[in-house]
């Protein structure tokens, strides 16, 4: 499940970069979009299977997706500071979130 969450966050970030004007709209509708997404439902099911209750599974996903969307929006609004720096900052934040989830899962 950790790998699926990481892949989803990276795909979401790439999509938002490709369609930068949509990023604020995605942020406004984040929670309803998360709850309606079939790919996110599959991840939530895996988290429930791993021992989280359904509400906690959604909160975990919201934390990851919120990070991906928020980091991307801030990066887009800040303007070019170098793709390498932005990518490194995203990777660092995502890694810390993934480590925390992995520890909760006992991995």
Instruction: Note the main sheet.
Output: none
Question: Helix and strand string, N-terminal first?
Answer: HHHHHH
Q: How far apart are the termini?
A: 11 Å
Q: Which overall shape is indicated by the principal axes computed on the Cα atoms?
A: globular
Classify the helix fraction into a percent range: over 70%
Structural class: mainly alpha
Low-confidence stretches: none
Mean pLDDT over the residues? 85
Q: Report the portion of residues in β strands.
A: under 5%
Give the C-alpha Rg.
14 Å
Quickly count the helices.
6
Find the count of extended strands (DSSP E, 2+ residues): 0
Please give a structural write-up.
- It contains six helices and no strands.
- 84% of the residues lie in helices and 0% in strands.
- It is mostly helical and 107 residues long.
- The chain has helices at residues 2-18, 23-28, 30-36, 38-49, 54-78, 83-105.
Present the secondary structure layout.
Blueprint: H1 2-18, H2 23-28, H3 30-36, H4 38-49, H5 54-78, H6 83-105
Helix pairs in contact: 1-5, 1-6, 3-5, 4-5, 5-6
Highlighted features:
6 helices, mainly alpha, 107 residues, globular
Quick recap:
The protein is mainly alpha-helical. It is 84% helix and 0% strand.
């Amino acid at each position: 499940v950790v790998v699926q969450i990481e892949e989803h966050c990276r795909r979401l970030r790439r999509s938002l970069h490709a369609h930068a004007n949509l990023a604020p709209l995605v942020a406004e509708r984040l929670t309803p979009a998360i709850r309606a997404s079939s790919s996110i439902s599959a991840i939530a099911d895996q988290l429930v299977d791993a021992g989280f209750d359904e509400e906690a599974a959604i909160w975990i996903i919201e934390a990851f997706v919120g990070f991906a969307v928020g980091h991307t929006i801030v990066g887009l609004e800040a303007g070019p500071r170098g793709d390498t720096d932005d990518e490194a900052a995203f990777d660092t934040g995502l890694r810390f979130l993934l480590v925390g989830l992995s520890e909760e899962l006992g991995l």
